[in-house]
Specification:
Chain lengths: 419, 355
C-alpha cells in the first residue's frame, strides 16, 4: 500500500449495526490499490476521524467553478491539510438528476465511471437540494469531470444566490394520485431560468418544487419559494362497490374512526347501506380519505394546480410556509404552461428588484405585505389566499368602493367567461 | 483552442431512463396496494401492474456499493431504479414473481427493504463534517447510528402513520421539517478572531445577517472588527457562514435539540412546523446515544398512544402538549415558551385544559 490508513477508532464504530455503512464504503475506496482517488480517501477518513475526535468541522469554502458558469460547484479546502494533504481539495459538483430521479443502470454505471476517473468515487443520491452530489475532487479535475457529465446530457445545479435545482415527485409516472405532469412542470420552470441558476445574481436562493397532489411529498409548501401542487376542482371519484368491500373487510367502526371522522371539514358520511356520501363543495382536497381507501376513492378529472409562494426555513426571520398565490389553474395547453412560466418570471423579476440582500421571497412578502407583492406580480387578491380576514382595525380603507368595484367586475368577467 | 463552453441543458428528460411500464402508463394509474412492507403494487387503468421494492441506502455511496445495486437491478429486477426524496432506492419490476427473490438478495447484501406506509423511513440527510463548511456535527454518522437503532421500524409497518425524521448540522436546518428533527442548537455566542475579521468578512453584510441586531462594527486592538452584544445574542450561528472568524461551533457547547410535529402533508390538518421538545443534548459522536435514546422514547410513546393514521402532529393535537411531556418524561422548561415574533399565537388563550 502506497500510504498507510489513519487510525479511525471512532469511525470504525460506524461500521457495525444493520444499516448500510458509509464508512465501510469510504474505506473500500481508501483501500482501492492504484486508483487515483485512493490517497484522497485515506486522508478524507483521517480528517473525518479528526472531526469526530475534536467535534469540529474543518472545511472552508472558496472559489472554484467551471468555464461559463458562476455557480454549481461547492468548493471545499481543508483547514487541516498539513495533516491530511491528499484531501486538501475536496470539491463537490451538484448535478441535476432526471426529473423524478429515474435512472437505468447503464446511466448510473456511466456516472460511476466518470467519478471513478475524475473524482473520489463517492456519490450522494441525493442532496437536500435535489442534486446528485459528486462529492470530492481536486480543483484541477472539476472541469474535466463536468465536461464529461455535461456531454452525457447532465448539467450543473444551483448554488448561492441563484435559482436552485428543483424537485418533482414520482407523480404521473407511478402514482394514481397525481394531478399534474410533474416532470413537465419542473422542466418548464427550471429550464426557463438556467441563466439565473448558472450565474448567481439574485438577492438569495429561489427554489421550485413540484408535488403532484396535496400530500406534497416534495415538502414544497415548507421548502420552496414557489410550490406547484397538483389538485382538482370537480368531485372526487367514489367507487361505491369498492367502498362497501372496504367497509366489510375493515369494519364500520374502522371506517368511521379512520376515514369519516378524520375529514377536516366533516364532508364525509357513511350511509346506512355502507356507501359513502361526499359533500364535495366542502372537500378541501386534503387527501386523507383517498390515502386510506386507495381502491375506492380517487382524485377527480378536472385537474390543475395550486401555486404557493414564500416557503423557507429559519434564517433570518423564522420559518415561513408558502402562501396560496394561485388557488387553481389548469395546466393542459401550451398557453397554460406559458401562463405558469409568466407567473414565475414576474415573481423572480420582482424578487430580484425588491428583495434585500440575503432575503428570501417569503421574507420579502412578510416585509412588504402580501398585497404589495401581488400588485408587483400582477395577481388579483383572492379569499383563498388567507386563513381569515384582518382582525385589527388599524387600516386605511379610503378606496374601499374602488376595490369593491374591482371584485364585482372580476366576478362578472369570470361569469361571462364561464357561460 | 477556445475553451469548451457548457451545454446549458438543465433538468434532463426522465422518460429516457424510466421503466417502460411507467412510460406506457404515464398519467394512467388507477390504484395501489402495499402487499408487504417495502413493496408497492400499482395498477394502471390499462390493466398493467408494476411492483416497486424500496430499500434503504447510506446515501453517501462509494461506486462499488452503487454498482452492486446496479448488479442487483440487472439480475433480480429489470434494470430500472429511482431514488426517493429520503435517499431510498426503488427497483421496479413487471412480475410479482420477481419480488421475493429481489427482497432476499437485497437483504442478503445488507440493504434493508422497507420505508413504506406507517414505517420510520430513512432520515433526511445533510452533509455534516464530511463535507459542509459550517457544521456543528456530522450527518451521515448521526443517520447511520440512528438507523441502526430504528432498523426494525424501517422494515416493518408498525407505526400509527409514517414517521419522517430529519437531522441538521446547524441552525440553518437543511434537513427541513420532520415528525422528529434532531438539530444542532448552539448555546454560546461566537468566538471572534479579531485579527481575521477585517480581511475575511464583509462587515455590513454580517451585521445585516443577525436576526436580533446583536452585531455591530467595532475597533478591536486598533483593527476594524465586529463585536457581539452577548446579552442579545441568540447563538443561532447566522453570522458564521458569511464570517468564518466568528466561530460558532464548539465541541462542548454546541448541543443537539429535538423537535417534533413537523408535517409537510395537507392530509387531515394543514402542514405544520416542528416544535422544540428537548435541548441541551450532548453532541456525542460516534453514535450519539443520548439523542438516540430520546428519539426512541418519543417513538415508543407515539406508537403506543397514537391512533391509526395520526401523524405525530395529529397525535399531539389530540392529546395536548402537557400529556406529551408527561408521557415522554421530558422536562418542560421556560425555553419551550416561544418569544419570537408572532409567539402569542402559540399561547393558550382559552380554558381548554385536560385534567
Amino acid at each position: 500500500m502506497s500510504k498507510p490508513l489513519h487510525n479511525t477508532p471512532m469511525l470504525d464504530q460506524l461500521e457495525g449495526g444493520p444499516w448500510p455503512s458509509f464508512i465501510t464504503g469510504i474505506k473500500r475506496l481508501a483501500t482501492d490499490e492504484g486508483k487515483s482517488y485512493q490517497p484522497m480517501m485515506i486522508d478524507l477518513l483521517g480528517q473525518l476521524e479528526h472531526s469526530y475526535q475534536t467535534r469540529k468541522g474543518y472545511w472552508k469554502g472558496g472559489t472554484i467553478g467551471v468555464i461559463g458558469y458562476g455557480g454549481g460547484v461547492i468548493p471545499r479546502f481543508s483547514e487541516v491539510a498539513s495533516q491530511f494533504p491528499a484531501s486538501k481539495e475536496f470539491h463537490t459538483l451538484r448535478i441535476q438528476p432526471p426529473a423524478g430521479m429515474h435512472y437505468n443502470t447503464a446511466l448510473i454505471r456511466q456516472l460511476c465511471d466518470v467519478w471513478e476517473k475524475h473524482g473520489s468515487g463517492l456519490i450522494a443520491f441525493h442532496g437536500q437540494s435535489g442534486d446528485i452530489m459528486f462529492q470530492g475532487t481536486t480543483s484541477d479535475n472539476v472541469q474535466s469531470a463536468f465536461d464529461e457529465l455535461n456531454e452525457m446530457g447532465f448539467d450543473l445545479g444551483g448554488a448561492g444566490p441563484a435559482v436552485r435545482t428543483g424537485m418533482s415527485c414520482v407523480g404521473a409516472a407511478r402514482c394514481e394520485q397525481s394531478c399534474a405532469n410533474e416532470q413537465k412542470v419542473l422542466r418548464t420552470l427550471v429550464n426557463n431560468f438556467l441563466d439565473d441558476m448558472h450565474r448567481p445574481a439574485l438577492p438569495y436562493k429561489f427554489k421550485f418544487k413540484v408535488s403532484g397532489c396535496p400530500n406534497d411529498c416534495m415538502n414544497s409548501i415548507e421548502r420552496a419559494d414557489m410550490a406547484i401542487i397538483g389538485t382538482w376542482r370537480d368531485d372526487m371519484k367514489v367507487d361505491q362497490a369498492e367502498v362497501k368491500t372496504f367497509v366489510s373487510k375493515k369494519s364500520r367502526k374502522y371506517v368511521i374512526d379512520n376515514v369519516i371522522s378524520r375529514c377536516p371539514t366533516h364532508a364525509l358520511s357513511l350511509n346506512d347501506d355502507d356507501s359513502l356520501a361526499v359533500d364535495n363543495r366542502n372537500c378541501v382536497r386534503c387527501m386523507h380519505c383517498i390515502n386510506v381507501m386507495t381502491k375506492a376513492l380517487s382524485v377527480g378529472d378536472d385537474k390543475g394546480i395550486t401555486v404557493l409562494m414564500g416557503g423557507k426555513r429559519t434564517l433570518k426571520i423564522g420559518d415561513l410556509m408558502g402562501t396560496v398565490i394561485i388557488p387553481f389553474m389548469k395546466l393542459e395547453t401550451q398557453a397554460d404552461y406559458d401562463r405558469l412560466r409568466g407567473i414565475a418570471e414576474a415573481t423572480i423579476e420582482f424578487f430580484a428588484e425588491n428583495a434585500l440582500e440575503h432575503e428570501r421571497t417569503g421574507e420579502m412578502i412578510e416585509r412588504i405585505g402580501l398585497v404589495n407583492f401581488l400588485e408587483g406580480i400582477g395577481v388579483d387578491v383572492d379569499p383563498n389566499m388567507i386563513s381569515e380576514p384582518r382582525q385589527c382595525s388599524y387600516v386605511r380603507t379610503d378606496t374601499w368602493d374602488e376595490e369593491a368595484e374591482k371584485w364585482f367586475t372580476r366576478k362578472a368577467e369570470q361569469q361571462a367567461a364561464a357561460t | 483552442m477556445p475553451p469548451r463552453m457548457p451545454i446549458e441543458s438543465g433538468v434532463p428528460d426522465p422518460f429516457q431512463y424510466m421503466h417502460p411500464i411507467m412510460v406506457r402508463n404515464y398519467g394512467a394509474w388507477k390504484h395501489h396496494e402495499r402487499p408487504r412492507p417495502g413493496v408497492l403494487c400499482h395498477t394502471s387503468k390499462n390493466g398493467e401492474q408494476i411492483w416497486t421494492i424500496r430499500a434503504g441506502t447510506q446515501r453517501q455511496m462509494d461506486v462499488y456499493t452503487i454498482r452492486k445495486l446496479c448488479d442487483i437491478a440487472d439480475q433480480y429486477a429489470e434494470g430500472y431504479v429511482r431514488f426517493t426524496i429520503r435517499s431510498n432506492i426503488e427497483f421496479m419490476v413487471s412480475q410479482e414473481s420477481k419480488v421475493a427473490p429481489l427482497i432476499d438478495k437485497l437483504t442478503q447484501e445488507g440493504f434493508p427493504v422497507g420505508g413504506t406506509g406507517p414505517s420510520v423511513s430513512m432520515i433526511a440527510h445533510t452533509q455534516g463534517w464530511l463535507h459542509c463548511d459550517i457544521p456543528g456535527t456530522d450527518a451521515s454518522g448521526v443517520v447511520k447510528a440512528l438507523m441502526d437503532e430504528l432498523y426494525e421500524e424501517f422494515i416493518r409497518e408498525d407505526m400509527p402513520n409514517r414517521v419522517h425524521i430529519t437531522t441538521s448540522c446547524c441552525q440553518i436546518n437543511c434537513g427541513g421539517q420532520g415528525d422528529i428533527a434532531i438539530n444542532i442548537q448552539h448555546t454560546k455566542p461566537p468566538k471572534i478572531n479579531h485579527d481575521l475579521v477585517a480581511n475575511v468578512c464583509e462587515r455590513p453584510s454580517v451585521v445585516a445577517r443577525c436576526p436580533v441586531a446583536a452585531i455591530r462594527p467595532a475597533l478591536v486592538n486598533g483593527k476594524p472588527s465586529l463585536e457581539v452584544d452577548e446579552k442579545k445574542c441568540i447563538c443561532c450561528g447566522a453570522c458564521y457562514p458569511p464570517c468564518p472568524p466568528m466561530q460558532i461551533n464548539d465541541p462542548e457547547h454546541s448541543k443537539l435539540a429535538i423537535w417534533v410535529g413537523g408535517n409537510h402533508s395537507n392530509a387531515r390538518s394543514k402542514p405544520s412546523f416542528q416544535k422544540l421538545v428537548a435541548a441541551g443534548i450532548p453532541n456525542n459522536p460516534p453514535r450519539w446515544p443520548e439523542a438516540a435514546a430520546i428519539v426512541k422514547k418519543i417513538l415508543r410513546v407515539y406508537k403506543e398512544d397514537a391512533r391509526d393514521w395520526e401523524r405525530l402532529s395529529d397525535w399531539v393535537a389530540r392529546i395536548g402538549w402537557p400529556r406529551f411531556f408527561e408521557l415522554t418524561e421530558l422536562p418542560f422548561t421556560k425555553f419551550h415558551i416561544d418569544n419570537w415574533r408572532g409567539a402569542r399565537r402559540s399561547l393558550n388563550a382559552s380554558t381548554h385544559i385536560r385534567f
